[in-house]
């Protein structure tokens, strides 16, 4: 590998880590806005999404430039392919942060309705998955990537329990349907972020093992969410 290509690949890793930090902060802010009923903070999350979109485009252009200039092969080529996929997953997580902010603004309109779900705790677990998935790629840690994939089922189960409890509470008090649906949808958004973290871990495994691991750990228990 040429010194110039090595330098470009290291910069690409740093760019992905920076984007991961940005989307992680966006989701953190959205969850905080939800649990604190802060509509203004939720709106700020929506407005900051443009920065993530710009970063995603910059990283894609970075990947294409490396492909054109150096024509990498073998593991270097797999890294570029993985980086392009991970870049897209991170941008989608940014979009899900905006969706969470929408739910936060909806829930803030109902100060009389209690939040019966521990979404903050759910996010902490998803956040760890996201961090570990990107670190697995950067550090070439196959064991960590497999662990991230295995954790996805736990998040799926949490989201399922929240959905069932929301349905039960709505039956008991139909007047609370809208805020409870907003909270259930927020849990679904967090579960989808965990799915993207799993995608990143699977792409890390592709980088290290040269085989496509996607779908190995099974689909979620329902269709596309809001």
Commentary on this structure:
With 226 residues, this protein is mostly helical. The chain has a single domain, classed as Methane Monooxygenase Hydroxylase, Chain G, domain 1 (Up-down Bundle). 82% of the residues lie in helices and 0% in strands. The chain has six helices and no strands. Helix 1 packs antiparallel against helix 4. It is elongated. The mean pLDDT is 92.
By CATH, the topology is Methane Monooxygenase Hydroxylase, Chain G, domain 1
> Averaging pLDDT over every residue, what do you get?
92
Order of helices and strands: HHHHHH
The end-to-end distance, rounded to whole angstroms, is: 44 Å
* Count of extended strands: 0
Percentage beta strand: under 5%
Q: Specify the number of helices.
A: 6
CATH-level-2 architecture: Up-down Bundle
Query: Which CATH top level class fits?
Result: Mainly Alpha
Shape: elongated
Oligomeric form of this entry?
single chain
Radius of gyration: 19 Å
Instruction: Write down the domain tally.
Output: 1
For this structure, what is the CATH homologous superfamily? Phosphate transport system protein phou homolog 2, domain 2
Low-confidence blocks of residues: none
| Structural class by SSE content | mainly alpha
Describe the biggest sheet? Answer: none
Determine the fraction of residues in helical runs and give it as a percent range: over 70%
